[in-house]
Amino acid sequence: MSEKYAAISWNRQKIIYDLILWSGVVGYLLLFIGLGAIFQPNVTIETLLIRGFGTCAILLLHIVLIIGPLCRLSPKFLPLLYNRRHLGVTTFFVGAIHGVFSIIQFHALGNVNPIVSILISNTRFSSIADFPFQILGLIALIILFLMAVTSHDFWLNNLTAPIWKLLHTLVYVAYALLIGHIVLGVLQAETSPILVISLGFGLISVIGLHLFAAFKESKTDEEFISTDEFVEACAVAEIPEKRACVRTISGERVAIFKYDGKISAVSNVCQHQNGPLGEGKIGDDGCITCPWHGFQYNPETGASPPPFTEKVPTFNVKIEDGKVFVRQIPNKAGTQVEPAKFE
Ligand code: HEM
Ligand code: FES
User: Is 243 exposed, middle or buried (0-12, 13-18, 19+ CB in 10 A)?
Assistant: First the structure.
């Protein structure tokens, strides 16, 4: 949450996450290359390495993409999300090793610069069977690189949240390019159905989980619309102590918190990476803690405690007959609002 660069601090959870991640990557590669050597003895070790790293990278990318919707469906998956960037950076490294091996194998022996060779050696863009699929892999790798180098919070603060989020949304463009890279590349000559089936299953999982999570949220997101300035959102008794209930009011998701005989409402969207503040709780320090990576906000001002500077919009609230009413128009992020008090 600081604009100054601070080195990544390793804690036990991050170390365990990375250990599992890297053992998974090494285990996958050993298994892939071992089985390849046994069942396809004619395939060279260079090809097995290219294929092992390529399939490992695309598998990691699928995991990166399904973590978001899985967490929206169940908080049980949240531990996967906390260090998702480590997964993203690993995806880039594994994909880059695949790319470098491919360049060495297919483009390094000529007298043209290998990167230029990828771009000019095949220009049959109108052919499906001979499409220059490697260019798609190269563009995807550049996107993964940009995401990996800007994954630290230092860049989130310096690029500003909207630009950073836009940049990181490009992961879907990279995914689409990589599907093209594989379908127009290796699948054109592949005789074994394993890669086609795995890719189809992966594609269905990514699209299906995103649609299912959006559908489930839209059902719980019954919108509260009224011509009055304030809309009835929920009953005070419905909100657990130090927790929130989340309602969509005038198109915006609002987290309505109950604590110490008071009610305050803030935007549900964390300034860090859009985490759901309404699924966090108010701690002993009186701050809402985002369940994703622990950014904190004062429920009455929407501002992070000093020295941090993040702010979310607040909403005016009132209580009538045990019901909470929320003003439809949000206040500017960080605006202090008097909480509504109840007996
Ligand atoms: C400079 C960038 C890249 C180049 C030059 C490149 C090149 C290649 C080549 C030549 C193949 C065919 C290998 C074969 O005949 O078996 C291939 C396949 C593949 N690539 Fe890439 N690639 C790049 C980036 C990526 C990235 C970033 C990913 C994933 C994140 C990726 C995933 C794959 C996969 C899954 C395959 C199919 C593996 C298989 O053969 O079974 N590629 N790539
Ligand atoms: S989304 Fe990361 S702390 Fe809220």
Answer: middle
* Residue 312 Cβ contacting ligand 2 at under 6 Å: no
Nearest Cα to 67, choosing from 275, 244, 220, 216?
Answer: 275
Around 320, how many Cα atoms within 13 Å sit in the side-chain half-sphere? 8
Q: Please return the burial class of 116, using the count of CB atoms within 10 Å of its CB with bins 0-12, 13-18 and 19+.
A: exposed
The best mutation among 64, 93, 100, 102 to test binding of ligand 1, ranked by most ligand atoms within 8 Å of the C-beta, falls on: 102
CB-CB contact of 268 with 249 (8 Å)? no
Which residues, in sequence order, are CB contacts of 182 under 8 Å at separation 6+?
Answer: 58, 133, 195, 199
Q: How far is CA 93 from CA 8, 41, 90, 228, 302, in A?
A: 18, 28, 5, 54, 38
Q: Is the distance from the beta carbon of residue 51 to the nearest atom of ligand 1 less than 6 Å?
A: yes
Reference 258, options 340, 172, 315; nearest CA is 340
3-state helix, strand and coil shares in percent for the chain, rounded to the nearest 5: 50, 15, 35
Q: pLDDT tens string for the chain (343 positions)?
A: 444 555 555 678 788 999 999 999 999 999 999 999 999 999 999 999 999 999 999 999 999 999 989 988 887 888 888 788 899 999 999 999 999 999 999 998 888 899 999 999 899 999 988 999 999 999 999 999 999 999 887 887 788 777 888 888 999 999 999 999 999 998 888 878 999 999 999 999 999 999 998 888 776 665 566 667 899 999 999 999 999 999 988 888 899 999 999 999 999 999 887 888 998 999 999 999 998 888 999 999 999 998 888 999 999 999 999 999 999 999 999 999 999 999 8
Amino acid identity, position 39:
F
